[in-house]
Write a structure and sequence with these properties.
Blueprint (H helix, E strand, L loop, with lengths): L2 H44 L15 H10 L2
């Protein structure tokens, strides 16, 4: 094997190692942030109204009215 081919393989191996290390670091950072995001989103979901027992869950709210205004021609 020629020296240039050996050097190319070593460079490629180093690049793969550092790319993998960077990926692991990014994944660890994402995992560290996720519990904080989940905790802040938990409170609005708990303040939602309970579903009605016998249907009738549709309500004409401002959000729904705004949607209808954007779809009408």
């Amino acid at each position: 094997m020629q020296d240039s081919q050996v050097n190319d393989r070593q460079k490629s191996s180093r690049r793969s190692f550092f790319a993998g290390a960077a990926g692991v670091g990014a994944a660890a950072a994402a995992v560290a942030v996720l519990p904080k995001v989940e905790a802040t989103n938990a409170s609005p979901a708990s303040s939602a109204k309970p579903a009605p027992d016998k249907g009738g869950g549709y309500q004409l709210s401002e959000h729904v009215k705004r949607y209808y205004r954007t779809t009408s021609a």
